[in-house]
Amino acid sequence: MNKPLILVVEDDTAVRNLIVTTLETHDYRFQAAPTGEIAIMEAASHNPDVILLDLGLPDMDGIDIIRKIRTWSKTPIIVISARSEDTDKIEALDAGADDYLTKPFSVEELLARLRVTFRRLNDSRGEAIQNSVFQNGDLKIDYAGGCAFMKEKELHLTPIEYKLLCLLAKNVGKVLTHTYITKEIWGSAWDNDVASLRVFMATLRKKIEPNPSEPMYIQTHIGVGYRMLKV
User: Fold this and answer.
1) Sign of CA dihedral 73, 77, 81, 87
2) Own/partner pairs for 128-136, CB < 8 Å, 24+ apart?
3) Quick one: which of 120, 77, 75, 95 has its CA closest to 229?
4) So what's the pLDDT on residue 129?
5) 83 and 104 in contact (C-beta within 8 Å)?
6) What tens digit of pLDDT does each residue of 54-84 get?
7) Rounded to 5 degrees, what are φ and ψ at 43?
8) pLDDT by residue (tens digit) across 187-196?
9) Range of the domain at 30
10) Which of 96, 119, 142 is the last residue of a domain?
């Protein structure tokens, strides 16, 4: 099996060298691009498995690169940026990024984010082969039957709770913003109704989490959104 190919888009030489050395040490193949224009060409011609993207590039903003790539590719994009405000993270995630890592970062955290991304890719490929049932720890969703189970006991979910659970399950490991979730679940009329989303998420957690105060399935990203963790 070919080793995963990772496209590193970073104009800072020191940071780029740190990332590619880390990837090389852990047996990942990589290509490096110092500008947005080169990054788009490399992404189109080599179809990388994952893209690590800095937002502050000399020729174009990283958000624009995400939007361009998303017009033809679903390749996971992990943003690595010095921009640490929630608004920056939300903008990148809503544009189509899959994860967001803030500089300065540790090598261990970068590798952990990559492992999560590759697990999600492998899960989605397996789901494509057998996509009627989702299994994550003790949680099971029977998409064909329209029902969910915890430790083989059927969960009594409202239609909204079930839709929320399925949306998170189909994006395991990916941070979904409040805006994305509300639009997917309720449509544009509910856009930005974060208070209602929190209520439904709280009731869903009570039904699937062994300890809702210390959730193991649904992780909150304060001010940004939610992510289903791989258990």
Assistant:
1) positive
2) 134/169, 134/170, 136/169, 136/172, 136/217, 136/228, 136/230, 136/231
3) 120
4) 43
5) no
6) 999 999 999 999 999 988 888 999 999 998 8
7) -65, -40
8) 654 555 788 8
9) 5-119
10) 119
Q: Hey, CA dihedral for 183, 84, 165, 127, is it positive or negative? A: positive
Check if the beta carbon of residue 22 is closer than 8 Å to that of residue 107. Answer: yes
- Would you say 178 and 225 are in contact if contact means Cβ atoms under 8 Å apart? yes
Residue type, position 192, single letter? N
DSSP string, 90-121: HHHHHHT-SEEEESS--HHHHHHHHHHHHHHH
- What residue spans of the chain are helical by DSSP H? 13-25, 36-46, 62-70, 86-95, 107-129, 159-169, 178-186, 194-208
Of 202, 219, 210, 228, give the one whose Cα is nearest residue 150: 210
Domain C-terminal end among 119, 144, 173: 119
**Res 34: pLDDT:** 95
Residue 127: the pLDDT is 53
At residue 213, the 3 state secondary structure works out as: coil
Cβ neighbours around 56 below 10 Å, total: 13
Q: Look at residue 125 and tell me if it is in a domain.
A: no
pTM score, two decimals?
0.68
Q: Into how many domains does the chain fold?
A: 2
Q: What is the dihedral of CA 120, 90, 78, 187, to 10 degrees?
A: 40
pLDDT tens sequence across 89-140: 889 998 889 889 999 899 999 998 898 888 877 766 555 445 688 899 999 9
- Dig out the tokens for 59 from the structure: 């020729």
